[in-house]
Amino acid sequence: MDISTAYKDNNYKIHVDRNILKNVLQTYTKQYESVYYIIDENIYDIYKDSKLSFIISPLVVTGGESFKYVSPLMHTMEALLASGIKRNSLLVVIGGGATGDAGGFIASIILRGVDYIHVPTTLLAHDSAIGGKTAINSEHGKNLIGAFYRPRAVIYDLEFLDSLPEDEVLSGFGEVFKHAMLHSPALLDELMAATENSIDITALPPYIIKGIETKMKIVIEDEHESGSRKFLNLGHTLAHAVEYKYKIPHGQAVMLGIIAALYISNELNGAGFDLDAYIAYIRRHGYPVQLLKEMDIDEMMHFMQKDKKNHRSDYISYVVFEDKNTPAVTDIKIEDLQNMLTALKERI
Ligand code: NAD
Ligand code: ZN
């Protein structure tokens, strides 16, 4: 299935299917004089003799979050320059969201910008297929150095997901779940029914596609994050604090953050979510629900107050639901949030 972006200009295709990489990539590479590959080493180790055997002399990098720093970035750019990359070369970046973020940032600055294609290999990376954000980390925080820079295409070959470790499946599924929730209660019900007892990757493609479309709709309405794009932050305010403190994968923390957002939506707006059903569902799938009970509220509040999305002191900006259909951004008084999270702990 091909999804086309619907920006005013500079549109690109997101190709989503199993076993498409080589054929789809060829349709792009033949337009360029030279093609360079950056590949996450875990992916290269698994697929070098199969799906990736057609690639000659790639730059194999230590993928994951450790790639998103200045030093590996410079090292990779020097290697690309040494091997003769030109303005009209194509850069193909194969890996999860981290390799995609740093590889996309390299594409945006090397020689003042070359075309690139992202080949996501994780479930979570469906999220970065759209939005045009590239970034690396600073010692002051995550994703603080980067650029908005769109790829020429995204080729999401779902066969890569077959080798994804369980922890990463749970993480990526957190964002799939978030996008379904932002789409509609009906889609969320369908997704929860399809994954009632376990998350079977083969059942997910329709929801991955819907997720990309949902994010696209929101991003296109609001490319520079002043209004509705903030809804994509659902679950993320608490998630960033939990992720930072307990070092769990991003999307797993998002799932815990969504539970907190639903509880708060019930408390503030009488949104009517069946909280116990959601908690039972995520517990059944192996999310670390106990962290919502163990978390130190003062510490969580301290991290949440540093969130770059806050714009009023004494308040924390939070995505909640007014009712099951309607997400909204609201500023919650620090003291009120503290009380609600303390009460949530008792519920777990
Ligand atoms: P990741 O890229 O760090 O990959 C997670 C781990 O899984 C790594 O160890 C990697 O080597 C391994 N891996 C990747 N694919 C695999 C596969 N198919 N089989 C086996 N192992 C595999 O993680 P991620 O969760 O994809 O991405 C997280 C990053 O994405 C974060 O840095 C986040 O900031 C970024 N992100 C960016 C956007 C955006 O819009 N730009 C959106 C969401 C997330
Ligand atoms: Zn996220």
TrEMBL record:
This is 3-dehydroquinate synthase. GO terms for cellular component: cytoplasm. Its EC number is 4.2.3.4. It is found in: Cytoplasm. Residues 172-310 form the 3-dehydroquinate synthase C-terminal domain. Keywords: Amino-acid biosynthesis, Aromatic amino acid biosynthesis, Cobalt, Cytoplasm, Lyase, Metal-binding, NAD, Nucleotide-binding, Zinc. Pathway: Metabolic intermediate biosynthesis; chorismate biosynthesis; chorismate from D-erythrose 4-phosphate and phosphoenolpyruvate: step 2/7. Its cofactor is Co(2+); NAD(+). One of its GO terms (molecular function) is 3-dehydroquinate synthase activity. Belongs to the sugar phosphate cyclases superfamily. Dehydroquinate synthase family. Residues 60-169 form the 3-dehydroquinate synthase N-terminal domain. GO terms for biological process: amino acid biosynthetic process; aromatic amino acid family biosynthetic process; chorismate biosynthetic process. It comes from Jeotgalicoccus halotolerans.
